[in-house]
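Example with several molecule types.
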Amino acid sequence: MRRITLDDVANLAGVSPITVSRVLRKPDAVSPGLRLRVDAAVKELGYVPNIAASRLASSRTHAIGVIVPTLYNVIFAEYLFALHEVLVAAGFQVIVVNSRYSEIEEENAIKALLGQRVEAIIIAGTHHTPLSRQLLAQARLPVVETFELSPNPIDLNIGMSQEHAGQTATQHLIERGFRRIAFLTGNLDHRAQSRFDGYRLAMREAGLPNLEIIAERPRHSSVALGSDLFTMTHERGDVPEAIFCTDDNLALGAMQECRKRGIRVPDDISIIGFHDLEFAACAAPSLSSIATRRFETGKLAAERVLAALNSSVVSRAEQIDLAFALIPRESTAV
Amino acid sequence: MRRITLDDVANLAGVSPITVSRVLRKPDAVSPGLRLRVDAAVKELGYVPNIAASRLASSRTHAIGVIVPTLYNVIFAEYLFALHEVLVAAGFQVIVVNSRYSEIEEENAIKALLGQRVEAIIIAGTHHTPLSRQLLAQARLPVVETFELSPNPIDLNIGMSQEHAGQTATQHLIERGFRRIAFLTGNLDHRAQSRFDGYRLAMREAGLPNLEIIAERPRHSSVALGSDLFTMTHERGDVPEAIFCTDDNLALGAMQECRKRGIRVPDDISIIGFHDLEFAACAAPSLSSIATRRFETGKLAAERVLAALNSSVVSRAEQIDLAFALIPRESTAV
DNA sequence: TTGAAAGCGCTAACAT
DNA sequence: ATGTTAGCGCTTTCAA
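Resulting structure tokens for the full complex:
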């Protein structure tokens, strides 16, 4: 059973194939009479255009590639939501690939997206393999790196200083008078590493020793992991006065574990998270955090890509720093 | 600047285009000498094959369409993770589209996927517009509907009885001796509606009156929403003895709000959630829930799709019921 | 093992 | 406003 093609529709409607093509893409350029006949034929035959053929013929794909490390973390869901909202409305397809925090998988994703001839690539993170950088730079398409600030952006870079944010969270705890302040994370991907750098910087400046609570094998941030890591620390008899968690989920898990063990937050221990996820404000006690701008990042990235695609002016490396914000709440109140 | 094509590579390597194509797709069919020359030329030119052309010429896309209602809920992230794991390993591209819980957007997604000539469609849910059903049925490709059981599956259906699960959760509360049992949800998409049906069935059988806590405008399940809805109820002075929440996030939000208000769980109120998300076991108190099998659903759907694509036997409507399980924990302990 | 010819299904460019 | 012609960049089929 052959698939229905444009020609079949044209034959049935008694017009030329290009007229059918026009009815589908720019109906206003066709007289109402023909348009109706074509529409009827399309419907009768259940015709669905072959996008691969269209892309090949027009050499436009109307597709934009997006690479994220994972879908488990809601921050990427929010970011993707914003990207979709802008790009789909503008008639683009968004092709999402996840790299599972691996630079090799990211490189493969880039190759796959370039093979699909996406018109732009939006990629979370600024650390790539040399070949990835080379492919992106040579591809002559808009590239946006997001979430972090890069020392040498490939093209456009929209992010925030993860290190400065980590430093800010740590200083918040230091200012509250704590000395035994721990840094807690499930993995050390580049963003977590930068927050860690910020933590160490703040601790060094204050003349305080580092305290690290890091999962033995990399695990994604979750409430359960926060609970596990805190338990581990507690059972070592090594509970600090304050903890900076790289993610609100970890912080929530740690708080729950405190509660089970009769350790009061913030009376006995202070906890600050990261990202200011939706639940931070309504947690009991409410959770101090660093608010980050996932939605704005996605929206801005998408808008800049559209602008670049419409302008044909070759863009140069540019950087946009989306500020973060410290949100002090009960979990670190003195 | 023209893009590099197969012909460019062929010219540089001094072979015919088809030989280059073979080196890329089935290297074993080409003599080592030529293969090396071609590989060198590919590398030198930075050649990336045009997938649209390949798809058009071969009439195979190696693409599989997946439709989910949202990426905000982690259950879909888990499901997608499993789908990816199986399908990508088998050499397929997974194209994810989200329908934002709208049947019209789902219909558009189906059209878009068919236009891309995906080789199979895996779709969360069993409620579709008549046109969607027609398109899927006529498309002569494997279709898998997931998460729910359908009275009339289009093709393969892998899911669970949401209604029975809702009934089970409710009966658990009834058995514990509660009479004022509320059903709490942020929206009534089809799955939530089915759980609601199960709740009402159980309540009717026990001769108890319904108590509904439903957001005024549809909102996605979140901790913050659970907190809001509980607050609303509490401020109406209308707090029940037990609550069945359609999602663990809602349940966690409700529990946190209880805590803030000095209402003890489970002493003053019992709460059960749904999905048994990762945090349920480590919440304080630990959260009773209904465990659902998102990962298995995705894995099985993907495996069945691969089998169908390899067998060429036309599959008939078939249904697989993945059981759920009641997980009683502290939040409903008596 | 390698290549030549033909065509996948559509659209750009150029008529009329 | 509509049609004709000529590809887009690959792969299939068939031949050598």
